[in-house]
Design goal:
By secondary structure, the chain is α+β, with helices and mostly antiparallel strands. The protein is built from nine helices and seven strands, in the order ββαββααβααβαβααα. α2 crosses α3 and α5 packs antiparallel against α7.
Length: 236
């Protein structure tokens, strides 16, 4: 048996998570979103500036199918594809619409047979990075580096009835907003500042864009997940 301790930050105590109560437009669809990082869960509990609770659970993963988007074999484009599939984006022009369709059709993963999905959490800053990428204003390498620099956390999403049957509630703890709302905003601000600094280097010629890949390059050159050009950028 393989047990995983996970945490969920919320404005209330949740002793029995219910898959039907999850929002359908979350990062990986309807589910229950947690993290293995207690401190992150506390920050997420107070992200609106109110007092919150961190709920602790034990998850038996022994017979669960797990998709880890941060493991070898997957790229940031697989993560973007799922966001485009499930989250609501404002698509103002043809480039964005074509980018959405191409990324979903060529980089999306069929999650039907998975019970757990592990990957980045698309907080506001992460979501804005994804929007810039599909608008063709942010190259792939900058997107990849921004997410690494941001350190905004990895989430564990329970997305099947089987996963919900394997989770048990341990306890809950009230979280002090005075401490953790500040931590949440500082973490988000750092991600934005790191991203801005890196992008300014790009704009002012400190970083060459000769070898950069933008979403239009991916579309026009019909790149796929295993394309060596994508792998070269991601591995830097």
């Amino acid at each position: 048996m393989s047990n995983l301790t996970i945490y969920h930050g919320s404005d209330h105590i949740i002793e029995k998570p219910d898959i039907n109560k999850g929002k359908k437009y979350n990062d990986y669809g309807q589910g229950f979103y947690c993290t293995e990082d207690l401190e992150l869960a506390k920050e997420w509990a107070c992200k609106t500036g109110q007092e919150g609770f961190v709920n602790e659970y034990e998850l038996n993963t022994a017979d669960l199918a797990i998709l880890n988007l941060n493991s070898n074999g997957y790229t940031i484009l697989n993560w973007i594809a799922l966001l485009l599939k499930y989250r609501t984006f404002t698509l103002d022009n043809e480039i964005q619409r074509e980018a959405r369709d191409y990324i979903i059709n060529n980089f999306s993963i069929d999650t039907t047979n998975y019970d757990i999905i592990i990957g980045y959490r698309a907080d506001d800053s992460y979501f804005s990075f994804a929007e810039s990428f599909i608008s063709n204003t942010l190259p792939l390498s900058t997107l990849n580096k921004a997410l690494r620099l941001g350190n905004l956390g990895e989430q564990v999403a329970l997305v099947s009835e089987k996963a919900f049957n394997n989770i048990s509630f341990n306890n809950s703890e009230m979280v002090d907003k005075k401490i953790y709302y500040s931590k949440f905003t500082k973490r988000d601000l750092k991600a934005r500042e790191d991203y801005k600094q890196y992008r300014n280097s790009l704009v002012h010629g400190q970083i060459s864009i000769t070898d950069e890949i933008f979403v239009l390059d991916i579309i026009r050159q019909e790149m796929k997940n295993d394309d060596p050009r994508i792998q070269r950028i991601i591995s830097k």
